[in-house]
Amino acid sequence: MNHKILSYIHQESPIHRLTGAAKLIGFILWSLIAMITYDTRILVVMFILGIMIFLSSKVEFRYISFVFYIFLLFLFINNIAIFLFEPMQGVEMYHTKHEILHIIGHYTLTAEQLFYQFNLTLKYLTIIPLALLFMVTTHPSEFAASLNKIGVSYRIAYAVALALRYIPDIQRDYQNISLAQQARGIDLSKKQKLTKKLRYASSILMPLIFLSLNRIETISAAIELRGFGSQKRRSWYHERPFTKEDYLAIMLIILLFVFSMIITFLDGNRFYNPFR
Amino acid sequence: MNSKVLSIKTVVAIGIGAAVFIILSRFGSIPTGIPNTNVETSYAFLALMSLLYGPVAGLLIGLIGHTIKDAVFYGAPWFSWIIASGVVGLLIGLAASRIKLRDGKFGIKAIISFNIIQVITNSIAWFLIAPTLDIFIYAEPANKVYIQGLVAGAANIVTVGVLGTLLAIAYAKTRPKKGSLTREL
């Protein structure tokens, strides 16, 4: 049950040197572009840019490979599901029909469908390098500080910091409880009936939840004793002032955002159509 | 932000709640066979937290928990479903404000109203909000996302109905009831 999760890795690179707030703003705008546009030209440029940015961070691929493979599997299944459910989605979207291969029944492979699914896949592939990069190059405490810096209430930012801080602890709790209950005879194998699975799940859930509720009491007493929440603002140990590079990075991403929006909506809708 | 809405206990409950939500959605889920869709025990926990700490905590546990879960385990947040998770936490917390679980009160009446609330809430979130946002943001085929929403919503209704109710009953039993002490003469 030793599942790996993405976490911060300390290194030296231009991307690591950027402050958390700059990276957060950059990542939010980048995801927004990738979500809004269906313009293949923009997506291809962003995909190449994304890979270049990833390479410049000097993060080794093996640190993120496990998540990347899960993601590729998801993309693969998702693409197949889309084709099974709606083989004519592309035809509806682009209003033309170029048949390539008739498979069976109403399953016909069309150029439009291929192009639509290519775009969809490309959208995910543009977000993933930067999302992974953001996770491994931003220290959790600095991330909370940056949330506060871009205008999120510091109480909420602190809640996010707490969540990130306690994930490993609660994972350990979960594993201990699970092993203890297995020692007492619950069977977590896949062959069980659903009702039994639910009962076994709740025998882990109950202790975990009561443990966590106690933890909430302890932590809130501790931070209240230290004066949390008595002032309107708070300072952050990991906060860093903006440098020239940060302003430059933010300006570049805003330029990219404006430029992509203009190209995307120039011809009236989000979808770039090469079939007309 | 108003400090009455976000008391220190609520802030901590959001943080720890989000962490538990993340761990449960990673380890406590059972696949249903449809892509990207599982029976999630984490939603039973989310419902309990909304009952205990109110709508703001429910909303933020859903939003933060789901975002971090997507980011650390799958690499990219899936915003349409993240928003739906937040809505579940918010609506259960809003509608169930009359259930006084903290005072150890969770009788038949409360169980019935909790379940009516959770069925309505989950239906709004998974049959309506999640698939509609999927189409709007990601332009995925309508019948694929509505079937995914239908399966996920039905699974969540059953999970919250069974596990969520059991959790709330178990919690109520650990609380001293109001006025349960009698004076010895």
UniProtKB/TrEMBL annotation, chain A:
Membrane topology qualifier: Multi-pass membrane protein
InterPro entries recorded: ABC/ECF_trnsptr_transmembrane
Subcellular location: Membrane
Membrane listed as a keyword: yes
Main localization, broad class: membrane
GO CC terms: plasma membrane
Residue intervals passing through the bilayer: 66-85, 114-136, 247-266
Pfam families: CbiQ
Protein's UniProt keywords contain NADP: no
Record key words, sorted: Membrane, Transmembrane, Transmembrane helix
PANTHER family on file: ABC TRANSPORTER PERMEASE (PTHR33514:SF1), PROTEIN ABCI12, CHLOROPLASTIC (PTHR33514)
Protein name according to UniProt: Energy-coupling factor transport system permease protein
Organism of derivation: Neobacillus niacini
TrEMBL record, chain B:
GO CC, alphabetical: plasma membrane
Main location: membrane
Membrane topology term: Multi-pass membrane protein
Keywords of this entry: Cell membrane, Membrane, Transmembrane, Transmembrane helix
Subcellular localization, as worded in the UniProt entry: Cell membrane
Transmembrane regions: 6-24, 45-66, 78-96, 108-129, 149-172
Xref: PANTHER family: UPF0397 PROTEIN BC_2624-RELATED (PTHR37815), UPF0397 PROTEIN SPR0429 (PTHR37815:SF3)
Family of the protein in this entry: Belongs to the UPF0397 family.
Official protein name in the record: UPF0397 protein F4694_005217
Lineage: Bacteria, Bacillati, Bacillota, Bacilli, Bacillales
